[in-house]
């Protein structure tokens, strides 16, 4: 829609809502909606002037209420340190509805917050005291690589929206993907295949495959199937250089064929293939 038409449409909506339902109208929006809001106020004033000249409404037309007061209020947009706003048009929208943004995705969204935004986001998105926030920011700035600020921010927001149990699950899954120590296994946590599917249902890193298709596939074929590697030769090189992992255990042979009964998680329902330190892919079996 052309910008001029959009402004006119917003103005008419503003007038219509006010004219038929309330006497005084306040429209609230982000600061980027200032033009639309003022257009609505100006249109109300003009149409009120026309209404005053009408002594009798047309047949079937409801009598409009005159608006002595029409107000507009804008709120500063929430942006990143780079000036990018939060929203669908910017491609970084998150939802409170778990069906649209899973608790894990919400947790990860705030874990990706830049160091420059930590001090600004903590008082906006959490209920922590300013004294506590200052302590966290000070400690975070000493060792930004430990991501204390991001962890607190992600945990607090996820708990406010989804509860403490979802925070624990998100942290366990994050630890498995990015920081689980040698000897630890996801089977020791509360993570299930259902939770994995829900958390990554809109993520291209989740690959679904039939059991009969993958039952006799070697690790190099599975790496290509999930997208971890572009070819079997790449998978071979990764294994040779100790860079390919299966459920957080380093793969040592390109001839290895994972067993559905013994090497997959949650009774053969899924597995995690990781390339390097952070690139992971989920293989869901049905």
Automatic annotation (TrEMBL):
A single Gene Ontology CC term: mitochondrion
Catalyses which reaction(s): tRNA(Tyr) + L-tyrosine + ATP = L-tyrosyl-tRNA(Tyr) + AMP + diphosphate + H(+)
Keywords assigned by UniProt, alphabetized: Aminoacyl-tRNA synthetase, ATP-binding, Ligase, Nucleotide-binding, Protein biosynthesis, RNA-binding, Signal
EC number: 6.1.1.1
Signal peptide residues on this chain, from the entry's feature table: 1-18
GO terms under biological process: tyrosyl-tRNA aminoacylation
Enzyme class (EC, first level): ligase
Limits of the Tyrosine--tRNA ligase SYY-like C-terminal domain: 215-282
Molecular function in Gene Ontology: ATP binding; RNA binding; tyrosine-tRNA ligase activity
NCBIfam families recorded: tyrS (TIGR00234)
Family membership: Belongs to the class-I aminoacyl-tRNA synthetase family.
Name of the protein in its database record: Tyrosine--tRNA ligase
Organism per entry: Zancudomyces culisetae
